[in-house]
Amino acid sequence: MLGPSGISMMISKTSSNVSKLETGYxxxxxxxxxxGSTLLLGVRQFWLTFGASVDYRIGIxxxxxxxxxxxxxxxxxxx
Length: 79
Fold this sequence. Notes:
Blueprint: H1 4-21, H2 26-50, H3 56-78
C-alpha cells in the first residue's frame, strides 16, 4: 500500500517482527551492532569509492524496492 496508511502499516508490522527477535542475550545485540556498523561502513566506503560514477538515485530506488521485495517475500511465505 502507498500513502500514510501504508507506511504506518509497514512500520507496525516491521516493529512487531523486530520485537520477536529480542532474546535478551547480550551477545545477540552485540552481533547485530557489529553487522549494522559493518553495513554502514561498507556503504560509506562504496560511496567514497564509486560516488562520482554512480548516480545516487539508483541507490534510493534500490532501497525503496527492497522494502517491497521483503513484503512480497513475506506474503509468499505466509501462504
